[in-house]
Known about the structure:
By secondary structure, the chain is mainly beta.
Amino acid sequence: MRMNKGHNVRSALALGVCLFAVATATAQEVQERSSPDTVVVVGSREAEPAAGYRPDVVTTTGPWGGRKVEDVPYTITVLPSEFIENSGARNLDQLFAMTPLVQPGQSQDINNIAQATLRGFNVARAYVNGVQNNNIGMGVFIEEIDQLEILNGLSGFLYGASPVGGVINYQLKRPTAYDLRNLTIGNYGGEQYYAHADIGGTFDADGRFGYRLNLLTQDGDTQIDEQSLRRNMVSGSADWRPTDDMVVELFLSKKDFHLEGRQFQFFLGGNLPDPLDGSQIYAPRNTYVDVDSEEAGLRFAYEPSDAWAIRAALSYKEDTRSMVYAIGNLLPGDTSYQFNLFGGRNAAETQGGYIYADHAFSTGPVRHRLTLGVNGYSYINSLAIQANGFPSFFDGPYTFDLADRSVVDLAVPVWNLSDSRWVVNGRSKNINVVVGDDITFNPSWSMLIGANLSKIRSENFDFATGAPLPNGLYDESAVTPTVSVLYKPAATVTTYASYMESLEPGSIVGPTFANANQILGPLTSQQVELGVKATVSDILLTAALFQIDKASERSNDGTPTGTFVQDGLEVHRGIEVTATGKATDELSIVAGLTVMDNEIRDSADPALEGKRPNGVADSTVKLYAEYSPKALAGWVFTSGIYFTGEAYQDPLNTRKISSYALLDLGARYDAELFGHDVVARVNLLNAGDERYWAATSPGTPRTLTFSLSAGF
């Protein structure tokens, strides 16, 4: 583990300031405050979206789950299903491009894993219904998401071993109290026609048994030349409410994703040419990615009184993925690149869950809501070993001319299960025991304090023999504390100071490095955050200052064939500002600004001192707006501009990834037709057809999407 002595001193001072602020708060008569008594464990099917997409209650905060956004001492973004439906997005790429405070990364179409960078750190895992899942976005379709929740920064107390950048949670659609019959037909760009049915309601007159069913089918060529996509989904949930204070919910889904014509990737750290035309495929046309996903989940919540509550959840998910893709480096002259074909078939099995017990009580004038619980997950990755004994396909090198895209279609393997055997090559487990206290001193002052005992165990195995790999095992534990102080100078304003530590698994070294398959040790990171949240009319305004210190991981020689090591410290400092809600009766906005100053410190290589980490933009600015003129009843006009600042592609900061700005335009019309509510939507994404790099692949070209929805 890597701890920085100077930072520990600063962290201790920050913690002392927080405790001093509480100790010196004047005693006042205790009144009702939202946090101790509003941990939503049962919830209602009647929830209505806030005006202008303004967020209300979030579930991303683990032990603190169910708090109002303004009473959470962290930066949190929430996008409801209405926003998702109106965005014209087919996958998470577009949502991340529109989300304030998120730097989007490599397209989800590359390997069915979406990428997002939060506070300068790549977030590689996700949560579904508050339970840790596997790779971010794999097997998640946006048509089943009811609420996208993003927490920026450390979450060690909340979830134990978790990504330093933040938490991405997909809250899936749940049963409704009313009869929902919604059918949408549309096009996601090119010839990607689709049909989506969203059906919900209750089975009985008393409303004790509810259901929700989402069905999707999509097929056709995409807006990218010589690329096609097929998606199918059956996603459903049912709940039983035997009493008003208890709910049991079951969730099941089955999905398949098949993309033909996968875009190429450059090696991280390699030279990049000027941004390429994203409407073209710069790789063999018969590359592909195919993912089959199955998931089941169970949720239970019971709140017998204002003083006691219990909430629990379990989930199981399996993703089977086959893929063949091209990855390589730019050759001298910047007109062609040399690549190899890579491929393989793997199965990822994830199990996760949590159980929390909440108890509200008072000690004199001070009120508490004490939470005790356990959360965690286990992950098993298996490889399909072919008859020739290899788990993966490697072929090349080949040369590809970027100008005329001259390369013949290459033979690629067919991954037939009947011709292979499954071998476990890696597994990991994280178990967390948490205790937290939500304390109210008076109407103005409150505090969240807690600790997480987190245990990580990871193992890697030789795919041929099944034997543990050298340096392929670690089994570590750590206590990660948190403390937050909240001060409300007014009912609609919250200020806060937070300190949190986080434990994160070290990287499993990739196959191209000299120490391939080695599991690096876990990392302990620290974060200090100061923030303010205010509701002004119908707009939620937030601002936060933060600093994160984390051990750095890199190739020792800056190439994909060197030794991958933990070296030095990444220090990320920045400011985040958001505004969400209705600016006027006719105008709604979702906006955000991030400005960061990040650097490498204490590296064994003096040349890296003060350099910026790879792939991290120095700033992002985003503004999405909807205009609903009263003079044109039913019409809404939308636009968005999303700026991502420049970043560096190599450790020595000699090669830049250019900044870029994307413009979206759209309109929708809501009317009643033959007694049914009908909504027509059209969106022009990347209207200026900007060429840009989405991490190491060409960005999405101009795309026209449209749909027609009708309620029955």
